[in-house]
Amino acid sequence: MDFTFNEDQKMLRNSLRDFLEKEMAPMIKEKEPQGRPLNHEEAVDVLKKFKKMGLSPDIEDMKAFGGDASLIGIMAEEIGRVYPGIAIIIGYSIGIGALIQFLPDGMEIKERLLSRIKRSEVIATYSLTEPDAGSDNRAMKTKAVLDGGEYIINGRKTWASNGPISDLCLLVVKDEKEQQQMFLVDRERSPYESNELGHMGLKLASTGELFFDNCRVPKDNNLTNIMAKILSGGEGMKLLGDFKIPSEMLNLFTMMTPVSLVLAILRTGMALLSVGISQAALEASVNYAKERVQFGRPIGKFQLIQNMIYEIAVITETSRLLAYKVLNLLSRGDPEFRKASSMAKAYACEEVVRAASYAIEIHGGMGLSDEYPVERYFRDARMMTIPDGTSNMNRLIVGGQILGMSAYI
Ligand SMILES: Cc1cc2nc3c(=O)[nH]c(=O)nc-3n(C[C@H](O)[C@H](O)[C@H](O)COP(=O)(O)OP(=O)(O)OC[C@H]3O[C@@H](n4cnc5c(N)ncnc54)[C@H](O)[C@@H]3O)c2cc1C
User: Fold this and answer.
1) Is 276 in the pocket of ligand 1 (CB under 6 A)?
2) Residue 160 CB–ligand 1 contact under 6 Å
């Protein structure tokens, strides 16, 4: 068992850290206190900066990260360390944008969006939650009804990250048979309205409601059908071109519904972002404990301060181990992936709140001041337990899988 990073992994971490400190941190320091989410133009600017680092929805860029799942971990952790809101903008836009490249040639959405996606100009959102369907997403009411060559979609979604500034939506709806289906919706071709929802942390990330009012989407944009075609192998596999997905991983995907697969991936991402926030809280606390002098000595000399440093460090390390284990299970196509992603999400996202709270305590009054970043770490950490399945729901998934019985079905 080897827990050390190899040279490639270290190189990615160092260059990404350097890029984030130089290109992102000053912008975040300036704009986050304004409390306003980035608009479309500003979000595209962020996306384009990441493209220069080789992180983009372009399949040619993605190939560099295809063979080693821990690189995903390093990226998410490092972005979380500097500002998790950035991960929301680029994560959805890269992940969902990349899907367009695997669609059959000639499809309208591919023709319309591909070149803009390759230039990192398309902001994407994922929309599952509705006002009356949060934890219980099966209660969703948004409906897609087939009408000739198009589906007509009606309904109201909420809490869509990037939703208000999105060009492209990965939308979960119900069809006439009450089955959940995922659609790719090109906003310009199939307009939907939106509004912004404010929240306590992740202030630069735009989040909002989406309104689908007789929104007409080409029949072919049903991603659930396209995924089924790819997973069934044979001709469908040709859609992947020379992009290699290990067969074990593909097998895993056949064992999960598309929605639970997307949620398990998002939960892993949330756990990794929480590791990044905990790491940032640890670094800030160590620096402060060495500098701040009370009773004639640095506060780091006091045993109770050392105990809080221990707590933050052990939260960071335990969360990291859980999250990287999930990546390992995913890359090996292990059926434990879903349970492990819920375990990592519930643990890391709850514990990061405790870590950030200790960081505030170590900073004393300055911990509550916006002169230091720890008050932001706390606000951002507190945002982690709810999206992509609350801690309760993830505990129920883990408990249910261990016991072989579900608490809510
Ligand atoms: C900032 C932010 C970003 C988000 N981004 C997205 C996004 O991009 N796309 C998207 O689709 N959604 C997104 N969401 C929505 C998020 O996934 C939901 O808020 C979440 O799933 C919880 O749903 P809810 O808010 O309706 O809470 P509810 O489901 O109403 O839950 C309320 C409380 O009841 C508990 N509860 C519910 N059912 C049970 C049960 N069976 N047993 C025990 N406890 C239970 C919950 O754990 C919670 O504590 C986002 C939310 C936020 C706040």
Assistant:
1) no
2) yes
